[in-house]
Write the C-alpha coordinates for this entry.
Amino acid sequence: MVFALLLFSCNKESTPHDVAPQKDPISREAITQIVETSLREGKVFNWEMVDDFTLWSAGQQSDGFFALGYTLPEIQDIKSVIKDIQIDNSKWSAVKNKIFDVILEGERQMEPGKDIQVKDILPFGQPKVLPNFTAKITNPKTITRLRQMKEVRYVEASGFNLSDAQIAERSGSGCGDNGPAPYIWSSDYSNYSPWVKVPWNFQNANIPAAWNQTSGNNVKVCIIDTGGSDDQNNLGSPNYFNSGWSQGRSVQKKSTLYHGMWWWRKKDAPHDQCGHGTATSGLATAPRGSDGNTVGVAYNSDLVVYRAVEDVIISTSNEREGVRDALVDAALDGNVKIISMSIGTPFWSSTVADGIYFANAYGKMIFAAAGTSTSWTSWYPVIFPANMSQTIAVTGVKEGSPMTKCTVCHDGSEVEFALVMERSSNSDRTSLALSVANTNTPTYFGGSSCATATVAGIAALVWSKNTGLSKSQVKSKLIQASSNYPNKDSDLGWGTINAYQAVNSTW
Protein backbone atom coordinates (compact mmCIF):
# COMPACT_ATOMS: atom_id res chain seq x y z
CA MET A 1 0.00 0.00 0.00
CA VAL A 2 1.12 3.44 -0.77
CA PHE A 3 0.20 6.38 1.42
CA ALA A 4 2.13 9.07 -0.46
CA LEU A 5 -0.03 11.88 0.87
CA LEU A 6 1.63 15.18 1.63
CA LEU A 7 -0.93 17.40 3.30
CA PHE A 8 -1.14 20.49 5.50
CA SER A 9 -2.00 22.91 8.37
CA CYS A 10 -1.99 26.37 9.90
CA ASN A 11 -3.02 27.41 13.38
CA LYS A 12 -6.61 28.68 13.54
CA GLU A 13 -5.77 31.02 16.38
CA SER A 14 -2.95 32.65 14.48
CA THR A 15 -4.80 32.86 11.15
CA PRO A 16 -7.88 35.09 11.32
CA HIS A 17 -10.98 34.36 9.24
CA ASP A 18 -11.23 37.85 7.80
CA VAL A 19 -8.61 37.37 5.08
CA ALA A 20 -9.28 39.74 2.19
CA PRO A 21 -10.54 38.00 -0.98
CA GLN A 22 -8.03 37.55 -3.76
CA LYS A 23 -8.71 37.20 -7.46
CA ASP A 24 -7.14 33.79 -7.84
CA PRO A 25 -7.25 30.91 -5.35
CA ILE A 26 -4.08 29.69 -3.66
CA SER A 27 -2.38 26.97 -5.71
CA ARG A 28 -2.89 23.32 -4.92
CA GLU A 29 0.86 22.87 -4.53
CA ALA A 30 1.04 25.70 -1.98
CA ILE A 31 -1.81 24.23 0.04
CA THR A 32 -0.15 20.81 -0.07
CA GLN A 33 3.00 22.31 1.40
CA ILE A 34 0.98 23.77 4.25
CA VAL A 35 -0.49 20.34 4.99
CA GLU A 36 2.91 18.68 5.18
CA THR A 37 3.73 20.92 8.14
CA SER A 38 0.84 19.37 10.04
CA LEU A 39 2.03 15.85 9.29
CA ARG A 40 5.60 16.56 10.33
CA GLU A 41 4.24 17.79 13.65
CA GLY A 42 2.49 14.43 14.05
CA LYS A 43 -1.01 15.80 13.52
CA VAL A 44 -3.80 14.72 11.19
CA PHE A 45 -4.82 17.77 9.16
CA ASN A 46 -8.13 19.45 9.98
CA TRP A 47 -9.70 22.18 7.84
CA GLU A 48 -10.42 24.15 11.00
CA MET A 49 -6.71 24.96 11.04
CA VAL A 50 -6.83 27.29 8.02
CA ASP A 51 -8.41 30.65 7.25
CA ASP A 52 -11.48 31.17 5.11
CA PHE A 53 -9.66 32.03 1.90
CA THR A 54 -7.32 29.02 2.11
CA LEU A 55 -10.34 26.80 2.66
CA TRP A 56 -12.19 28.34 -0.27
CA SER A 57 -9.05 27.98 -2.42
CA ALA A 58 -8.80 24.28 -1.58
CA GLY A 59 -12.35 23.82 -2.80
CA GLN A 60 -11.72 25.66 -6.04
CA GLN A 61 -8.55 23.63 -6.63
CA SER A 62 -10.60 20.44 -6.49
CA ASP A 63 -14.25 19.85 -7.41
CA GLY A 64 -15.66 22.97 -5.78
CA PHE A 65 -17.59 20.87 -3.25
CA PHE A 66 -17.73 21.65 0.46
CA ALA A 67 -18.93 19.35 3.23
CA LEU A 68 -21.12 21.06 5.81
CA GLY A 69 -22.38 19.82 9.13
CA TYR A 70 -25.18 21.58 10.96
CA THR A 71 -26.83 21.46 14.36
CA LEU A 72 -29.37 23.12 16.60
CA PRO A 73 -27.85 26.00 18.56
CA GLU A 74 -28.81 24.45 21.89
CA ILE A 75 -26.94 21.19 21.21
CA GLN A 76 -23.45 21.24 22.70
CA ASP A 77 -22.21 17.82 21.59
CA ILE A 78 -23.61 16.18 18.44
CA LYS A 79 -22.14 12.79 19.39
CA SER A 80 -24.43 12.43 22.40
CA VAL A 81 -27.63 12.84 20.36
CA ILE A 82 -26.68 11.76 16.83
CA LYS A 83 -28.54 8.46 17.05
CA ASP A 84 -31.82 10.18 17.81
CA ILE A 85 -31.71 13.13 15.40
CA GLN A 86 -34.68 13.40 13.03
CA ILE A 87 -33.40 15.77 10.35
CA ASP A 88 -36.81 16.07 8.69
CA ASN A 89 -38.56 17.56 11.70
CA SER A 90 -39.37 21.27 11.69
CA LYS A 91 -36.46 22.50 13.83
CA TRP A 92 -33.77 20.64 11.91
CA SER A 93 -35.35 21.49 8.55
CA ALA A 94 -35.41 25.19 9.47
CA VAL A 95 -31.67 25.14 10.22
CA LYS A 96 -30.89 23.29 7.01
CA ASN A 97 -32.97 25.70 4.93
CA LYS A 98 -31.33 28.69 6.61
CA ILE A 99 -27.93 27.39 5.48
CA PHE A 100 -29.25 26.69 1.98
CA ASP A 101 -30.42 30.32 1.77
CA VAL A 102 -26.94 31.63 2.64
CA ILE A 103 -25.34 29.46 -0.04
CA LEU A 104 -27.95 30.35 -2.66
CA GLU A 105 -27.56 34.07 -1.98
CA GLY A 106 -23.82 33.80 -2.51
CA GLU A 107 -24.13 31.75 -5.70
CA ARG A 108 -26.69 34.13 -7.17
CA GLN A 109 -24.27 36.99 -6.52
CA MET A 110 -21.69 35.13 -8.59
CA GLU A 111 -24.15 34.62 -11.45
CA PRO A 112 -26.63 37.52 -11.45
CA GLY A 113 -29.88 36.80 -13.22
CA LYS A 114 -29.54 33.04 -13.01
CA ASP A 115 -32.30 31.23 -11.15
CA ILE A 116 -30.16 28.98 -8.95
CA GLN A 117 -32.17 26.53 -6.83
CA VAL A 118 -31.28 24.13 -4.02
CA LYS A 119 -30.96 21.21 -6.42
CA ASP A 120 -28.29 23.16 -8.31
CA ILE A 121 -25.96 23.33 -5.30
CA LEU A 122 -26.34 19.76 -3.99
CA PRO A 123 -24.26 17.31 -6.06
CA PHE A 124 -25.27 14.41 -3.80
CA GLY A 125 -28.84 15.46 -3.19
CA GLN A 126 -30.61 16.16 0.08
CA PRO A 127 -29.29 14.63 3.33
CA LYS A 128 -31.20 11.54 4.46
CA VAL A 129 -30.13 10.54 7.97
CA LEU A 130 -27.31 12.66 9.38
CA PRO A 131 -27.16 16.47 9.74
CA ASN A 132 -24.59 17.04 7.01
CA PHE A 133 -24.52 17.55 3.26
CA THR A 134 -22.17 18.52 0.44
CA ALA A 135 -22.70 21.73 -1.54
CA LYS A 136 -21.16 23.44 -4.54
CA ILE A 137 -19.82 26.85 -3.41
CA THR A 138 -18.00 29.34 -5.65
CA ASN A 139 -18.35 32.56 -3.63
CA PRO A 140 -15.50 33.04 -1.11
CA LYS A 141 -17.69 35.30 1.04
CA THR A 142 -20.08 32.40 1.58
CA ILE A 143 -17.36 30.42 3.35
CA THR A 144 -16.88 33.26 5.82
CA ARG A 145 -20.61 33.63 6.44
CA LEU A 146 -21.07 29.91 7.01
CA ARG A 147 -18.17 29.64 9.45
CA GLN A 148 -19.66 32.45 11.50
CA MET A 149 -23.04 30.75 11.87
CA LYS A 150 -23.70 29.08 15.22
CA GLU A 151 -25.78 26.43 13.42
CA VAL A 152 -22.80 25.31 11.28
CA ARG A 153 -20.58 22.67 12.87
CA TYR A 154 -17.99 22.52 10.11
CA VAL A 155 -17.15 23.53 6.55
CA GLU A 156 -14.56 21.40 4.73
CA ALA A 157 -13.15 21.16 1.22
CA SER A 158 -14.63 17.76 0.46
CA GLY A 159 -12.74 16.92 -2.70
CA PHE A 160 -9.29 18.42 -2.16
CA ASN A 161 -6.64 16.11 -3.57
CA LEU A 162 -2.88 15.92 -3.67
CA SER A 163 -0.56 18.09 -5.71
CA ASP A 164 0.25 16.82 -9.20
CA ALA A 165 3.50 15.26 -7.98
CA GLN A 166 1.67 12.78 -5.76
CA ILE A 167 -1.38 11.89 -7.90
CA ALA A 168 0.39 9.18 -9.89
CA GLU A 169 1.52 7.45 -6.70
CA ARG A 170 -1.89 7.74 -5.09
CA SER A 171 -3.72 6.20 -8.03
CA GLY A 172 -2.68 2.66 -7.20
CA SER A 173 -2.76 2.88 -3.41
CA GLY A 174 -3.41 -0.60 -2.06
CA CYS A 175 -4.30 -1.89 -5.51
CA GLY A 176 -0.86 -2.67 -6.88
CA ASP A 177 -0.50 -6.44 -6.50
CA ASN A 178 -3.48 -8.32 -5.12
CA GLY A 179 -3.44 -11.13 -7.66
CA PRO A 180 -2.22 -14.68 -6.94
CA ALA A 181 1.32 -14.83 -5.59
CA PRO A 182 3.74 -16.28 -8.17
CA TYR A 183 5.41 -18.27 -5.41
CA ILE A 184 4.37 -19.08 -1.84
CA TRP A 185 6.96 -20.27 0.66
CA SER A 186 5.92 -23.59 2.18
CA SER A 187 6.87 -22.30 5.63
CA ASP A 188 4.38 -19.44 5.29
CA TYR A 189 1.33 -21.66 5.83
CA SER A 190 0.09 -24.88 7.40
CA ASN A 191 -2.43 -27.27 5.85
CA TYR A 192 -5.62 -27.76 7.84
CA SER A 193 -8.74 -29.85 7.24
CA PRO A 194 -10.62 -30.12 5.02
CA TRP A 195 -8.00 -28.49 2.76
CA VAL A 196 -7.07 -24.90 3.51
CA LYS A 197 -3.92 -22.90 4.06
CA VAL A 198 -3.60 -21.30 7.50
CA PRO A 199 -1.24 -18.29 7.26
CA TRP A 200 1.91 -18.48 9.37
CA ASN A 201 0.99 -15.42 11.40
CA PHE A 202 -2.31 -16.97 12.49
CA GLN A 203 -0.21 -19.39 14.54
CA ASN A 204 1.62 -16.44 16.09
CA ALA A 205 -1.74 -15.04 17.28
CA ASN A 206 -2.81 -18.53 18.48
CA ILE A 207 -5.88 -18.38 16.25
CA PRO A 208 -6.06 -22.12 15.38
CA ALA A 209 -6.23 -22.97 19.10
CA ALA A 210 -9.17 -20.58 19.47
CA TRP A 211 -11.01 -22.50 16.74
CA ASN A 212 -11.42 -25.39 19.16
CA GLN A 213 -13.98 -23.23 20.98
CA THR A 214 -15.52 -20.99 18.31
CA SER A 215 -15.28 -20.07 14.65
CA GLY A 216 -17.33 -16.86 14.54
CA ASN A 217 -20.91 -18.16 14.44
CA ASN A 218 -23.75 -15.67 14.96
CA VAL A 219 -21.56 -12.60 14.41
CA LYS A 220 -21.77 -10.39 11.33
CA VAL A 221 -18.61 -8.59 10.23
CA CYS A 222 -18.76 -5.48 8.06
CA ILE A 223 -15.81 -4.59 5.84
CA ILE A 224 -15.79 -1.03 4.45
CA ASP A 225 -13.24 -1.03 1.66
CA THR A 226 -12.98 -1.35 -2.14
CA GLY A 227 -15.67 -4.01 -2.37
CA GLY A 228 -15.65 -7.77 -2.88
CA SER A 229 -14.45 -9.47 -6.05
CA ASP A 230 -17.04 -11.19 -8.22
CA ASP A 231 -14.21 -13.34 -9.59
CA GLN A 232 -13.14 -14.79 -6.24
CA ASN A 233 -15.56 -17.66 -5.62
CA ASN A 234 -14.84 -17.81 -1.90
CA LEU A 235 -16.51 -14.40 -1.59
CA GLY A 236 -18.62 -14.25 -4.73
CA SER A 237 -20.64 -17.43 -4.41
CA PRO A 238 -22.78 -18.40 -1.37
CA ASN A 239 -22.04 -22.02 -2.20
CA TYR A 240 -18.30 -21.47 -1.87
CA PHE A 241 -18.63 -19.05 1.06
CA ASN A 242 -20.53 -21.92 2.70
CA SER A 243 -18.20 -24.81 2.02
CA GLY A 244 -16.25 -27.35 4.04
CA TRP A 245 -16.35 -26.37 7.70
CA SER A 246 -18.04 -23.03 6.97
CA GLN A 247 -21.81 -23.46 6.86
CA GLY A 248 -25.11 -21.63 7.40
CA ARG A 249 -23.85 -18.08 7.00
CA SER A 250 -24.52 -15.18 4.64
CA VAL A 251 -22.38 -13.00 2.38
CA GLN A 252 -23.48 -9.63 1.01
CA LYS A 253 -21.73 -7.19 -1.31
CA LYS A 254 -22.97 -3.61 -1.42
CA SER A 255 -21.85 -0.31 -2.90
CA THR A 256 -22.16 3.21 -1.53
CA LEU A 257 -19.58 4.71 -3.92
CA TYR A 258 -20.84 7.10 -6.58
CA HIS A 259 -19.28 8.47 -9.73
CA GLY A 260 -20.26 11.70 -11.42
CA MET A 261 -22.73 14.24 -10.05
CA TRP A 262 -26.19 15.59 -10.47
CA TRP A 263 -28.17 13.95 -13.29
CA TRP A 264 -25.27 11.79 -14.53
CA ARG A 265 -24.34 10.57 -11.06
CA LYS A 266 -24.61 6.80 -10.59
CA LYS A 267 -23.62 4.24 -8.01
CA ASP A 268 -20.79 1.80 -8.69
CA ALA A 269 -21.34 -1.93 -8.72
CA PRO A 270 -20.00 -3.59 -5.54
CA HIS A 271 -17.39 -5.54 -7.54
CA ASP A 272 -13.86 -5.01 -6.21
CA GLN A 273 -11.71 -3.55 -9.00
CA CYS A 274 -8.71 -3.18 -6.71
CA GLY A 275 -8.39 -6.38 -4.69
CA HIS A 276 -7.85 -4.68 -1.35
CA GLY A 277 -11.39 -5.23 -0.07
CA THR A 278 -11.32 -8.84 -1.22
CA ALA A 279 -8.11 -9.44 0.76
CA THR A 280 -9.37 -7.81 3.96
CA SER A 281 -12.73 -9.60 3.70
CA GLY A 282 -10.90 -12.88 3.25
CA LEU A 283 -8.59 -12.35 6.21
CA ALA A 284 -11.59 -11.77 8.44
CA THR A 285 -14.07 -14.36 7.12
CA ALA A 286 -12.81 -16.54 4.20
CA PRO A 287 -14.30 -20.06 4.38
CA ARG A 288 -12.58 -23.12 5.76
CA GLY A 289 -13.21 -25.04 2.58
CA SER A 290 -11.62 -27.75 0.49
CA ASP A 291 -10.12 -25.88 -2.45
CA GLY A 292 -6.64 -25.30 -1.02
CA ASN A 293 -7.16 -21.54 -0.61
CA THR A 294 -6.39 -19.51 2.50
CA VAL A 295 -8.83 -19.38 5.41
CA GLY A 296 -10.14 -16.41 7.38
CA VAL A 297 -10.04 -15.93 11.14
CA ALA A 298 -13.81 -16.03 11.73
CA TYR A 299 -14.64 -18.59 9.08
CA ASN A 300 -18.22 -19.04 10.27
CA SER A 301 -19.12 -15.36 10.63
CA ASP A 302 -21.51 -13.59 8.30
CA LEU A 303 -20.02 -10.92 6.03
CA VAL A 304 -21.15 -7.69 4.42
CA VAL A 305 -18.50 -5.89 2.36
CA TYR A 306 -19.03 -2.38 1.00
CA ARG A 307 -17.43 -0.75 -2.00
CA ALA A 308 -17.08 2.74 -0.52
CA VAL A 309 -13.69 3.77 -1.95
CA GLU A 310 -11.69 3.20 -5.11
CA ASP A 311 -8.45 2.58 -3.22
CA VAL A 312 -7.32 2.73 0.39
CA ILE A 313 -7.17 6.52 0.59
CA ILE A 314 -10.40 8.37 1.42
CA SER A 315 -9.62 11.37 -0.74
CA THR A 316 -12.54 12.44 -2.95
CA SER A 317 -16.03 13.77 -2.32
CA ASN A 318 -17.49 10.55 -3.72
CA GLU A 319 -15.39 8.47 -1.32
CA ARG A 320 -16.15 10.54 1.76
CA GLU A 321 -19.86 10.33 1.00
CA GLY A 322 -19.50 6.62 0.27
CA VAL A 323 -17.75 5.81 3.55
CA ARG A 324 -20.29 7.80 5.57
CA ASP A 325 -23.20 6.05 3.85
CA ALA A 326 -21.65 2.62 4.43
CA LEU A 327 -21.24 3.43 8.13
CA VAL A 328 -24.87 4.53 8.38
CA ASP A 329 -26.08 1.41 6.59
CA ALA A 330 -23.98 -0.86 8.81
CA ALA A 331 -25.15 0.99 11.93
CA LEU A 332 -28.77 0.33 11.02
CA ASP A 333 -28.09 -3.37 10.36
CA GLY A 334 -28.96 -4.97 13.67
CA ASN A 335 -26.89 -8.07 12.89
CA VAL A 336 -23.59 -6.22 12.33
CA LYS A 337 -21.43 -6.21 15.44
CA ILE A 338 -18.00 -5.41 14.02
CA ILE A 339 -16.88 -2.88 11.40
CA SER A 340 -13.38 -3.11 9.92
CA MET A 341 -11.91 -0.18 7.99
CA SER A 342 -8.49 -0.81 6.45
CA ILE A 343 -8.72 2.60 4.78
CA GLY A 344 -7.97 6.15 5.84
CA THR A 345 -6.34 9.51 5.17
CA PRO A 346 -4.17 12.13 6.89
CA PHE A 347 -7.13 14.51 6.39
CA TRP A 348 -9.77 14.70 9.07
CA SER A 349 -13.18 14.32 7.42
CA SER A 350 -16.13 15.41 9.53
CA THR A 351 -18.46 13.77 6.99
CA VAL A 352 -16.88 10.39 7.77
CA ALA A 353 -16.59 11.26 11.48
CA ASP A 354 -20.35 11.76 11.66
CA GLY A 355 -20.75 8.24 10.27
CA ILE A 356 -18.33 6.93 12.90
CA TYR A 357 -20.24 8.70 15.68
CA PHE A 358 -23.50 7.22 14.35
CA ALA A 359 -22.19 3.64 14.12
CA ASN A 360 -20.55 3.93 17.53
CA ALA A 361 -23.84 5.11 19.04
CA TYR A 362 -25.46 1.94 17.68
CA GLY A 363 -22.96 -0.20 19.57
CA LYS A 364 -20.74 -1.24 16.68
CA MET A 365 -17.11 -2.14 17.42
CA ILE A 366 -15.07 -0.21 14.84
CA PHE A 367 -11.51 -1.19 13.93
CA ALA A 368 -9.41 1.14 11.76
CA ALA A 369 -5.95 0.89 10.21
CA ALA A 370 -3.27 3.06 11.80
CA GLY A 371 -1.79 3.67 8.35
CA THR A 372 0.50 2.10 5.79
CA SER A 373 2.93 4.10 3.69
CA THR A 374 6.00 3.88 1.59
CA SER A 375 9.06 3.52 3.81
CA TRP A 376 9.91 7.19 3.35
CA THR A 377 6.51 8.37 4.56
CA SER A 378 5.97 5.97 7.47
CA TRP A 379 6.77 8.84 9.84
CA TYR A 380 3.19 10.02 9.26
CA PRO A 381 0.96 10.08 12.35
CA VAL A 382 -1.77 7.55 12.99
CA ILE A 383 -4.21 8.44 10.24
CA PHE A 384 -7.91 9.25 10.25
CA PRO A 385 -10.25 7.64 11.26
CA ALA A 386 -7.95 5.42 13.36
CA ASN A 387 -6.99 8.50 15.39
CA MET A 388 -10.59 8.89 16.62
CA SER A 389 -11.47 7.77 20.14
CA GLN A 390 -14.55 5.99 18.75
CA THR A 391 -12.38 3.60 16.70
CA ILE A 392 -9.80 0.98 17.68
CA ALA A 393 -6.51 1.62 15.87
CA VAL A 394 -4.51 -1.42 14.73
CA THR A 395 -1.05 -1.65 13.20
CA GLY A 396 1.25 -4.38 11.92
CA VAL A 397 4.54 -5.56 13.44
CA LYS A 398 7.42 -7.82 12.44
CA GLU A 399 7.96 -11.25 13.93
CA GLY A 400 10.52 -11.54 16.69
CA SER A 401 11.53 -9.50 19.70
CA PRO A 402 11.54 -6.66 20.56
CA MET A 403 8.22 -5.80 18.94
CA THR A 404 8.87 -3.50 15.96
CA LYS A 405 6.37 -1.95 13.56
CA CYS A 406 6.33 -3.38 10.05
CA THR A 407 8.43 -1.73 7.37
CA VAL A 408 5.62 0.47 6.08
CA CYS A 409 3.33 0.64 9.11
CA HIS A 410 2.42 3.64 11.25
CA ASP A 411 2.52 3.65 15.04
CA GLY A 412 1.69 6.15 17.74
CA SER A 413 -0.19 6.81 20.95
CA GLU A 414 -3.57 6.10 19.35
CA VAL A 415 -2.64 2.50 18.47
CA GLU A 416 -4.41 -0.05 20.67
CA PHE A 417 -3.49 -3.41 19.14
CA ALA A 418 -0.81 -4.88 16.88
CA LEU A 419 -0.57 -8.03 14.78
CA VAL A 420 2.51 -9.87 13.61
CA MET A 421 2.25 -9.93 9.81
CA GLU A 422 5.77 -9.49 8.41
CA ARG A 423 8.72 -11.87 8.39
CA SER A 424 11.80 -10.37 10.05
CA SER A 425 14.00 -11.58 7.21
CA ASN A 426 11.84 -10.55 4.24
CA SER A 427 9.33 -7.69 4.22
CA ASP A 428 7.60 -9.19 1.16
CA ARG A 429 6.61 -12.29 3.12
CA THR A 430 3.50 -11.10 4.90
CA SER A 431 0.18 -12.83 5.64
CA LEU A 432 -1.83 -14.77 3.06
CA ALA A 433 -5.22 -13.55 1.86
CA LEU A 434 -7.74 -14.20 -0.90
CA SER A 435 -6.65 -13.04 -4.33
CA VAL A 436 -8.86 -10.73 -6.38
CA ALA A 437 -8.67 -13.21 -9.27
CA ASN A 438 -10.62 -16.39 -9.93
CA THR A 439 -7.97 -18.62 -8.43
CA ASN A 440 -7.33 -20.77 -5.38
CA THR A 441 -3.81 -19.39 -5.01
CA PRO A 442 -3.61 -16.76 -2.24
CA THR A 443 -1.88 -13.42 -2.38
CA TYR A 444 0.65 -12.02 0.07
CA PHE A 445 -0.99 -9.13 1.91
CA GLY A 446 0.43 -6.99 4.70
CA GLY A 447 0.57 -3.60 6.38
CA SER A 448 -1.87 -2.20 8.90
CA SER A 449 -4.67 -3.20 6.48
CA CYS A 450 -3.87 -6.85 7.07
CA ALA A 451 -3.51 -6.31 10.81
CA THR A 452 -6.84 -4.51 11.13
CA ALA A 453 -8.93 -7.10 9.28
CA THR A 454 -7.27 -9.96 11.16
CA VAL A 455 -7.82 -8.38 14.58
CA ALA A 456 -11.45 -7.70 13.59
CA GLY A 457 -11.72 -11.43 12.92
CA ILE A 458 -10.27 -12.22 16.37
CA ALA A 459 -12.87 -9.92 17.92
CA ALA A 460 -15.56 -11.84 16.04
CA LEU A 461 -14.30 -15.08 17.59
CA VAL A 462 -14.48 -13.60 21.08
CA TRP A 463 -17.95 -12.15 20.54
CA SER A 464 -19.27 -15.38 19.03
CA LYS A 465 -18.28 -17.26 22.18
CA ASN A 466 -20.77 -15.07 24.05
CA THR A 467 -22.99 -12.88 21.87
CA GLY A 468 -24.45 -11.28 24.99
CA LEU A 469 -21.26 -9.33 25.66
CA SER A 470 -21.10 -5.59 25.05
CA LYS A 471 -18.43 -4.17 22.78
CA SER A 472 -16.59 -2.78 25.82
CA GLN A 473 -16.52 -6.25 27.36
CA VAL A 474 -15.18 -7.74 24.12
CA LYS A 475 -12.49 -5.09 24.00
CA SER A 476 -11.58 -5.81 27.61
CA LYS A 477 -11.09 -9.49 26.73
CA LEU A 478 -8.76 -8.52 23.88
CA ILE A 479 -6.74 -6.17 26.10
CA GLN A 480 -6.29 -8.72 28.87
CA ALA A 481 -5.10 -11.31 26.33
CA SER A 482 -2.50 -8.98 24.80
CA SER A 483 1.27 -9.13 25.07
CA ASN A 484 1.80 -5.74 26.73
CA TYR A 485 -0.98 -6.04 29.30
CA PRO A 486 -1.19 -4.48 31.88
CA ASN A 487 1.21 -1.81 30.59
CA LYS A 488 0.18 -0.09 27.37
CA ASP A 489 3.08 0.83 25.07
CA SER A 490 3.24 4.45 23.87
CA ASP A 491 3.51 3.43 20.19
CA LEU A 492 2.17 -0.13 19.88
CA GLY A 493 -0.62 -0.08 22.43
CA TRP A 494 -1.54 -3.30 24.17
CA GLY A 495 0.53 -5.26 21.66
CA THR A 496 -0.38 -8.54 20.00
CA ILE A 497 -3.44 -10.57 20.98
CA ASN A 498 -3.46 -14.23 21.99
CA ALA A 499 -6.73 -15.25 20.36
CA TYR A 500 -7.04 -18.50 22.32
CA GLN A 501 -6.56 -16.69 25.63
CA ALA A 502 -9.12 -14.03 24.68
CA VAL A 503 -11.72 -16.62 23.66
CA ASN A 504 -10.98 -18.92 26.61
CA SER A 505 -11.58 -16.10 29.09
CA THR A 506 -15.06 -15.44 27.70
CA TRP A 507 -17.99 -16.68 29.77
Notes: Confidence is low (pLDDT under 50) at residues 1-21, 167-172. The chain has two domains: 28-166, 187-504. The longest helix spans residues 90-110.
